[in-house]
Amino acid sequence: MRYQFKFRPYQRRFLRSLTTNHGIWDVREGIILRLTDESGKVGWGEIAPISWFGSETLEQALDFCRQLPREITDQIIFSIPDELPACQFGFESAQEWGSEFFSMPNAPCPMPHAQSFSGLLPSGEVALNQWKMLWQQGYRTFKWKIGVDAIADELKIFESLIHTLPAFTKLRLDANGGLSYEEANLWLRTCDNLKANGELPLEIEFIEQPLPVEQFQGMLELSTSYETAIALDESVATLGQLAACHQQGWRGIFVIKPGIVGSPSRLRKFCHQHQIDTVFSSVFETAIARLAALQLAAELSRNNRAIGFGIDHFFEQEETWFQTLWNDL
């Protein structure tokens, strides 16, 4: 199949800067793709890289798009190198765009109910009030960023948070690889003690990526030492990393960010083959990539875990952003 190819870069400013162990993030930048096949059918895709998370840089993605001819083929799409995982996802998503998707990317997104989503809380004390808005919207699973401030301060906030959240809430703690081995032990021990206490009416579902990527063996050891589960995130950012961790013995939870993991077709094959325990998560993409990512989550999710796409409250909602982007540039 041959396609007429066009692309547009975009920028979306966060309403409030996103603070993680990787630093402060103010603007989400990416690329919207349009493929038109020989019958005139249009497919949309999105390249939304996060270079510090393991994908290519935005500039590398732009360079790749600029060097492509105006007419491309399936062969070109499926030969995108593994060093460009966000490009692999964007182009394959556009190529797969079919009748199950809406004709325009800003049409209502077929979202699951908010209870199926994990709502992202900001780091620090702000989380103590932020959860209320998300709870009113229907969220019952929350993710809180840790490993950002001094551990003593975060443990105090955590103590307040767990006694503030309503009963039967699920809470995920995301360190973004920002803890030392000793700090990870302290967090896991704290969570285990709360669980053993039996008085806590909410569930600490898991701690996400407690140690840096290069300390895989440490996380493997921790995963067998505590009742509280550990999920890998940065360690499995791309398909190559995901396969390597599985090969080295990881049988815990894998957090998959479809927007940067790489080829959707190869991801499907891996998940079907190995039946891994997955949590699908956002890369702060627009509705275009989210549609494709949610399709994959619906196909491949197991164990009824909430998916990490509760991020709309981080952006202004602009219903005309897509037309403005495509018509004005």
Write the layout of secondary structure elements.
Elements: E1 2-20, E2 23-37, E3 42-47, H1 58-67, E4 71-73, H2 74-77, H3 85-96, E5 117-121, H4 127-136, E6 141-145, H5 151-164, E7 170-174, H6 181-197, E8 203-208, H7 216-223, E9 229-232, H8 239-247, E10 253-256, H9 258-261, H10 264-274, E11 277-280, H11 287-300, E12 307-310, H12 321-328
Parallel strand pairs: 5-6, 5-12, 6-7, 7-8, 8-9, 9-10, 10-11
Antiparallel strand pairs: 1-2, 1-4, 2-3
Labels describing this entry:
329 residues, alpha/beta, four-stranded antiparallel sheet, 12 helices, 12 strands
Strand order of the largest sheet: 11-10-9-8-7-6-5-12
How far do the termini sit from each other? Answer: 27 Å
Radius of gyration computed on alpha carbons: 20 Å
Following the backbone from N to C, one meets helices and strands in this order, namely: EEEHEHHEHEHEHEHEHEHHEHEH
pLDDT averaged over residues: 90
Report on this model:
This protein is α/β, with parallel strands linked by helices and about 325 residues long. About 35% of the residues lie in helices and about 25% in strands. The chain is built from 12 helices and 12 strands. The chain has helices at about 60-65, 75, 85-95, 125-135, 150-165, 180-195, 215-225, 240-245, 260, 265-275, 285-300, 320-329, and strands at about 1-20, 25-35, 40-45, 70-75, 115-120, 140-145, 170-175, 205-210, 230, 255, 275-280, 305-310. The strands form 2 sheets. An 8-stranded parallel sheet has the order 11-10-9-8-7-6-5-12. Strands 3-2-1-4 form a 4-stranded antiparallel sheet, with helices on both faces. The longest helix is centred in the middle third of the chain and has 17 residues, at about 180-195. The two termini are about 25 Å apart.
